């Protein structure tokens, strides 16, 4: 999907309207010469004419491009429905969305002092420069939503031999797909079913990381049986552990079902890939996903250097 650039705007001072300039140059600090440029996650601001026209009716006058202090004024997409990590690009530049809306500056904002309200905090978006270059009025940008790449690995000797169906892996997919669909996040899944084989598990983990998986879920092999090898296989591969989430789950469900305390599930990072090792039952993966899924978006922002606190 393409959007049209109606205006590019710049200002030398924060809290003031930006003026249309015909062309801006984007670099690793944002819009060169603009007051909001710098080494941070809100280098470039964007606002759609769809939002400006709506606010113009409320204000009772025509609002000019740049009056909301946006660097890029667009048409063709409700920008506030995009998500952090989505991208806009053309042959010259590439931008990554880092924030939707912002805190209103109130009396420090020119448009707020005049009208008593401002659309930018609700419907403006912010981005950082991935690839710099020139952008001018009349250019088009392709909108590329971020698709979360999720790998699921089921470990079960018996299921891999066809003695019974794998139910826990599909359950992870069902729950995860539904959760992110409600957040309007697109997902794609890769699912493998293997025996309790540490070498095969390591190979699939390395393959998923090489394919830039955002998240890897394993299910099975987290107990204390002789064939349970998942945590000790994956733990040496982690660059960072995330112990809190599994500690919470064990304590929360272990209070009612002491057997839940026997799970050795772990979580952590390999490069920029989140890894979660879940038990092998449908009930357990449902409980674990209930606690894990609400942490994933914020984890991805942290991994990608987006300060969304």
Structural class: alpha+beta
Shape: elongated
Describe the largest sheet: 7 strands, mixed, barrel
- Could you please say which CATH topology of the largest domain applies here? Molybdenum Cofactor Biosythetic Enzyme, Chain A
Which stretches are low in confidence, meaning pLDDT under 50 for 5 or more residues running? none
Question: How big a fraction of the residues is strand?
Answer: 25-35%
Separate helix tally: 9
The value of Rg in angstroms is: 24 Å
| Integer tally of domains | 2
Known CATH architecture of the largest domain:
3-Layer(aba) Sandwich
Spatial order of the strands forming the largest sheet = 1-6-5-9-8-7-11
Please provide the count of β strands: 17
Termini distance?
30 Å
* CATH structural class of the largest domain: Alpha Beta
Question: Main attributes?
Answer:
Molybdenum Cofactor Biosythetic Enzyme, Chain A, about 30% strand, elongated, alpha+beta, about 30% helix, M1 Pyruvate Kinase, Domain 3, six-stranded mixed β-sheet, seven-stranded mixed β-barrel
Q: Could you characterize the architecture of this molecule?
A:
The structure is a single chain. The protein is an alpha+beta fold and 309 residues long. The protein has 2 domains: 2-144, M1 Pyruvate Kinase, Domain 3, CATH 2.40.33; 147-303, 3-Layer(aba) Sandwich (Molybdenum Cofactor Biosythetic Enzyme, Chain A). 30% of the residues lie in helices and 28% in strands. It has helices spanning 49-59, 110-115, 120-123, 157-160, 168-182, 198-210, 230-234, 243-254, 282-303, and strands at residues 2-10, 19-20, 23-27, 30-31, 44-48, 72-75, 87-89, 94-100, 125-131, 133-136, 140-144, 147-155, 186-194, 215-219, 240-241, 267-270, 273-278. The strands form 3 sheets. A 7-stranded mixed barrel has the order 1-6-5-9-8-7-11. A hairpin with a 4-residue loop joins β7 and β8 (94-100). α5 (168-182) crosses α9 (282-303) and α8 packs antiparallel against α9. The longest helix is centred in the last third of the chain and has 22 residues, at 282-303. The two termini are 30 Å apart. The model has no long low-confidence stretch (mean pLDDT 91).
């Amino acid at each position: 999907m393409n959007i049209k650039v109606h205006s590019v705007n710049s200002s030398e001072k924060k809290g003031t309207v930006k003026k249309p300039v015909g062309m801006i140059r984007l670099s690793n600090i944002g819009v060169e010469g603009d007051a909001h440029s710098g080494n941070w996650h809100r280098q470039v601001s964007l606002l759609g004419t769809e939002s400006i026209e709506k606010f113009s009716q409320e204000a009772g006058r025509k609002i000019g491009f740049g009056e909301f202090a946006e660097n890029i004024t667009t048409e063709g997409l409700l920008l506030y429905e995009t998500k952090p990590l989505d991208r806009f690009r053309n042959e010259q530049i590439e931008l990554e969305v880092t924030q939707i809306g912002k805190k209103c500056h109130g009396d420090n904002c020119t448009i707020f002092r005049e009208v008593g309200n401002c659309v930018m905090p609700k419907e403006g978006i912010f981005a950082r420069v991935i690839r710099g270059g020139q952008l001018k009025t009349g250019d088009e940008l392709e909108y590329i939503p971020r698709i979360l790449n999720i790998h699921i690995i089921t470990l079960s000797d018996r299921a891999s031999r066809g003695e019974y169906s794998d139910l826990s892996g599909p359950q992870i997919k069902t729950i995860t797909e539904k959760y992110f669909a409600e957040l309007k996040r697109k997902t794609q899944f890769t699912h493998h079913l293997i025996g309790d084989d540490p070498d095969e598990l390591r190979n699939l983990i390395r393959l998923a990381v090489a394919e830039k998986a955002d998240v890897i879920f394993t299910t099975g092999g987290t107990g204390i049986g002789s064939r349970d090898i998942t945590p000790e296989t994956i733990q040496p591969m982690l660059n960072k552990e995330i112990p809190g989430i599994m500690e919470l789950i064990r304590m929360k469900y272990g209070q009612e079902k002491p057997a839940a305390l026997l799970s050795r599930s772990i979580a952590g990072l390999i490069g920029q890939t989140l890894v979660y090792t879940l038990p092998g039952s449908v009930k357990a993966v449902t409980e674990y996903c209930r606690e894990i899924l609400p942490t994933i978006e914020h984890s991805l922002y942290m991994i990608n250097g987006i300060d969304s606190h």
